[in-house]
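Data deposition worksheet. Section B asks for the primary sequence of the deposited chain exactly as it was used as input, without tags or linkers unless they were present during the calculation. Section C holds the resulting structure in token form. Section D is free text for depositor observations; keep each observation to a single sentence. Incomplete worksheets are returned to the depositor.
Section A, Depositor: J.P.
Section B:
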Amino acid sequence: MSPTTVPPGSQAADGAPLGIVGGRGVLPFTVAAAARDQGRRVVLFALRGFADPGEVGAYPHHWVRLGQFGKVCRLARREGCRDLVLIGGVQRPTLRQLRPDWTTLLLYRRIKRLFRGGDDHLLSGIADAFEERGFRIIGAHEIAPEILITRGPLGRRTPSAAETADIAQGLAFLRATGPFDVGQAVVVADRRVLAMEAAEGTDTMLWRIAELRADRRIPKTGGVLVKAPKPGQDRRVDLPAIGMGTIAAAADARLSGIALVAGSAIVAQRTRLSAAADRSKIFVVGVDDAAG
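Section C:
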């Protein structure tokens, strides 16, 4: 990548390394590879129990646990990191499941308040806590803009007129529920909301759709998974994302396709995902959000 095409925010002026606090999935390593391709050193802070040990070893790294906020800050300073990316799947713990270090304990009252809200409230608050300690939180898409879905289909299939209407219905629904910081996904079929995402996550929501079909409570096939950021979403953290698991879950739920807001949602392993969607005969499409 030439200097004129390096994404804004991807390079530190003094050559400081990029720190990536990484959870489950391929996205932490996709971002790490993009930064390294741009000539930037990368240090991973791999979340134990979530990050893939087989991939972590390809980069300088430290293992940390959820709740070790102070340890991450201390190690990041030692490595010379000023910019941090928070990326990868993490199952939201309860306060009792955290293993806080001393710094985290000192912030316990604040963290307790952050847990009294949805995921965007929690993650945005964590990002703010890092920035108060002198770090800059960068969105993963600022390092690797290619992970954002663009407008149009990824594979061969495109939505029909009826499915396009379902997508519009789903986007309208998510705009209405977004201020409650509930979830980023909904399944719509024939203009009817079949399920909305809450604490269970997208894949579990899709498993519920499969169960409803098995119980003959909804039609055997059809419906669109729609994912969109919440109004006022903190784009530094937790943009909507899909991966290979989402394609498999959507196929098992016998959906017709998946729609994401172009430029505001992350697609992991784009080429593999597109091929998997074609094999499953479902569409994956980036769409405009008229009110976005």
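Section D:
The chain has eleven helices and 13 strands.
The domain at 3-145 is CATH 3.40.50.20 (Rossmann fold).
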